[in-house]
Design a protein that fits this description.
By secondary structure, the protein is an alpha/beta fold. It is built from 12 helices and 9 strands.
């Protein structure tokens, strides 16, 4: 039995409280065993939150690992989650902006981060009768990737491999569809402030908006209790006349920062977001 299959069997139980508790324990096991990501998380949290005490920073790191485990459990449990369960345990803020963006007739770019529970946001979109296709990086293991995609698409969510995305995205936007993008990963395309520090940033969402006119909606889904979530949708981002892709991504980064501050312990601090900026001597 593979590790992923074992995780599915152990974490995907009907009782959401038990599932989350097992996931949190799994997250703390990773905290103890995965020194690389534990130290990277500590470094990032210390840089972004220098005014927190060492103990407060460490508590945030630990809670991030617990959250990571809970969300992993929720993900493998998703075949058990119905639309009725989802809607009964989720409050949406800004949904009027969500529908206003869809009413513009240009497709929609839903931009978020590795924060909270993106899979639940995708399920919510589908429950609201608004399909979404997400752009993601493939797993190294093809068997695991196939199972992950099967879980993601079971309720109708589409998936596009990040390496072969542009042509498919443009077609979907032309067909007035919604594309989900998480542009908060390290890149070497441009160096744009993120929490006040230059960070390697992709330009894709800005370039797609400038090319197609599809409005950008910053959005996130954060956990607020056992099995309970909030969707937050910010005001649409539309390019100013003559605005460059770099300037537009600066505004997107600011929106992502605001969303992270809703629940900073639910952000994936273990990712080396500023790696290329350090290599370029910008930090």
């Amino acid at each position: 039995m593979s590790l992923f299959s074992f995780a599915e069997k152990y974490l995907a139980v009907p009782d959401i409280g038990k599932s989350e508790a097992r996931g949190a324990a799994f997250g703390m096991m990773l905290y103890r065993l995965d020194a690389k990501h534990r130290e990277q998380s500590r470094e990032n949290v210390a840089m972004v939150f220098p005014n927190l005490s060492k103990s407060e920073q460490e508590n945030m790191v630990k809670e991030m690992f617990r959250h990571f485990g809970r969300i992993a459990a929720d993900f493998v449990r998703s075949p058990l989650r119905t639309n009725d369960e989802l809607i009964a345990n989720l409050t949406a803020y800004g949904s009027e902006e969500f529908y206003r963006a869809h009413g513009m007739g240009e497709g929609v770019l839903a931009v978020t981060a590795h924060l909270g529970n993106w899979e639940r946001f995708g399920h919510w979109c589908l429950a609201m009768d608004r399909g979404i296709t997400c752009v993601g990086r493939d797993a190294d293991d093809g068997t695991v990737q196939a199972r992950v995609n099967a879980l993601r698409t079971q309720n109708g969510m589409g998936m596009i491999s990040r390496g072969n995305a542009i042509r498919q995205i443009l077609k979907l936007l032309k067909d007035r569809q919604m594309i989900g993008i998480l542009p908060d990963q390290n890149s070497d395309e441009a160096y744009i402030p993120f929490f006040g520090k230059p960070a390697g940033t992709v330009l894709g969402p800005a370039v797609l908006h400038l090319r197609t006119g599809a409005p950008i909606i910053p959005c996130c889904c954060v956990r607020v209790g056992v099995g309970k979530y909030e969707v937050h949708i910010e005001s649409m981002i539309i390019a100013h006349e003559g605005e460059t892709a770099e300037a537009l991504m600066g505004r997107i980064n600011q929106a992502i920062e605001r969303m992270i501050m809703r629940a900073p312990e639910q952000y994936l601090w273990m990712h080396d977001r500023w790696r290329n900026a350090r290599r370029e001597g910008l930090l």
